[in-house]
Amino acid sequence: MIQATHSPDGFFKWIISLFMSRLGKYLNATAGEMKHVKWPTTRQAIIYSALVIGVSTLTALFVAGFDYVFTNLLNSII
User: Fold this and answer.
1) How far apart are CA 39 and CA 15, in angstroms?
2) In angstroms, rounded to a whole number, what is the distance separating the alpha carbons of residues 66 and 78?
3) Is the dihedral angle over the CA atoms 59, 65, 70, 75 positive or is it negative?
4) Is residue 48 within 8 Å of residue 40, measured between CB atoms?
5) pTM above 0.70, yes or no
6) Which of the four pLDDT bands, split at 50, 70 and 90, describes residue 14?
7) pLDDT tens, position by position, 33-70
8) Could you state, in order of their start, the residue ranges of all structural domains in the chain?
9) What is the Cα–Cα distance from 41 to 10, expressed in whole angstroms?
10) How many helices (H) and strands (E) are present in the chain, helices listed first?
11) How far apart are CA 7 and CA 14, in angstroms?
């Protein structure tokens, strides 16, 4: 009978240590990149959030208006 020279347990430990090593490198690189990010001020964040909410609301009203018009148009035709 042929015996394996390496146990499966050792292989999984190697895989886990390799994964953890790469994960650690990734997290360190990410933390380094986050130091270069220029974060908005509180005022800018509030203004941008209000702008997104406003544009989203206007878009929703625009689409709802077209939906209403076309629904009534199709109902009058059918």
Assistant:
1) 37
2) 18
3) positive
4) yes
5) no
6) confident
7) 999 999 999 999 999 999 999 999 999 999 999 999 99
8) 9-38, 40-78
9) 50
10) 2, 0
11) 11
